[in-house]
């Protein structure tokens, strides 16, 4: 084998190891979440006022796994980010290593913030609006599977979408993107975010608006953060040049 082939094999082995560690962490968190899933289930339906219907013996098990899966994903995010950092660490400078490592806690915090926003703001608003449409005309009854699918579809995407500002900051610090590129891509980004909002929400205008507006705000917030990081990066580069001239 040539040196290049051996290097490629080593990279693939390292990647495989990082993926395995991440999957093990996910399985551990999944099992741990499943142990307490009954209490979590009870808390999530606390405001319904009635029990949910089950159409088959395996449905409640599927619901329990859905709930445990979301919790396991949230807890695995910092582990996955750290394993990714370990994989790319050899290719980074000392300054880049410190910078990228500092983003890992933020990934977890923003994911939880996104889930909280989806669950406490978007989900009850959309659910209340949809229930108001059937008030006095239909008898409303939920099945466990449909109720939690609806809840997760409205909350889980926000966990990932709230990562956008941090991802933009990270890419700006590495020089992959800059605020000028983000500003020029604003129209395309708006269009894509509107499409995402329509895809993850029920087919009604109010739900689309409730999801679209926060996404557009997130994008503009990301552009602002990118400008801050970009200015700091330029200043640091300028300071480094001045320091080099002084020492030469």
Automatic annotation (TrEMBL):
Alphabetized UniProt keyword annotations: Cell membrane, Membrane, Protein transport, Translocation, Transmembrane, Transmembrane helix, Transport
Keyword Membrane (UniProt): yes
The keyword Transmembrane is annotated on this UniProt entry: yes
Cellular location(s): Cell membrane; Membrane
Entries under Pfam families matching the protein: TatC
Transmembrane segments: 20-41, 61-88, 100-130, 150-176, 188-205, 211-230
InterPro entries: Sec-indep_translocase_CS (IPR019820), TatC (IPR002033)
Bilayer topology: Multi-pass membrane protein
Predominant cellular place of this UniProt entry's protein: membrane
PROSITE patterns: TATC
NCBIfam families: tatC
Subunit details: Forms a complex with TatA.
Function: Part of the twin-arginine translocation (Tat) system that transports large folded proteins containing a characteristic twin-arginine motif in their signal peptide across membranes.
Sequence similarity: Belongs to the TatC family.
Descriptive protein name: Sec-independent protein translocase protein TatC
């Amino acid at each position: 084998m040539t040196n290049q082939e051996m290097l490629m094999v080593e990279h693939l082995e390292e990647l495989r190891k990082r993926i395995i560690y991440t999957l093990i962490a996910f399985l551990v968190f999944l099992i741990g979440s499943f142990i307490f899933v009954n209490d979590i289930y009870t808390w999530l339906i606390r405001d319904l006022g009635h029990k949910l219907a089950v159409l088959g013996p395996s449905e409640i098990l599927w619901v329990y796994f859905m709930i445990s899966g979301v919790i396991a994903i949230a807890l695995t995010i910092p582990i996955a980010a750290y394993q990714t950092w370990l994989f790319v660490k050899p290719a980074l400078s000392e300054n880049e290593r410190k910078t990228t490592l500092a983003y890992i806690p933020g990934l977890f915090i923003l994911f939880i913030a996104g889930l909280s926003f989806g669950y406490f703001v978007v989900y009850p608003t959309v659910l209340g609006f949809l229930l108001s449409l059937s008030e006095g005309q239909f008898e409303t009854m939920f099945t466990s599977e449909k109720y939690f699918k609806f809840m997760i579809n409205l909350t889980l995407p926000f966990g990932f979408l709230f990562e956008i500002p941090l991802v933009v900051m990270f890419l700006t610090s590495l020089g992959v993107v800059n605020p000028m590129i983000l500003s020029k891509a604003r129209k395309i980004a708006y269009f894509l975010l509107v499409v995402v909002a329509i895809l993850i929400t029920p087919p009604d205008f109010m739900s689309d608006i409730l999801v679209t507006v926060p996404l557009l705000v997130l994008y503009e917030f990301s552009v602002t953060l990118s400008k801050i990081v970009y200015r700091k990066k330029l200043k640091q580069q300028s300071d480094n040049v001045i320091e080099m001239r002084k020492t030469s």
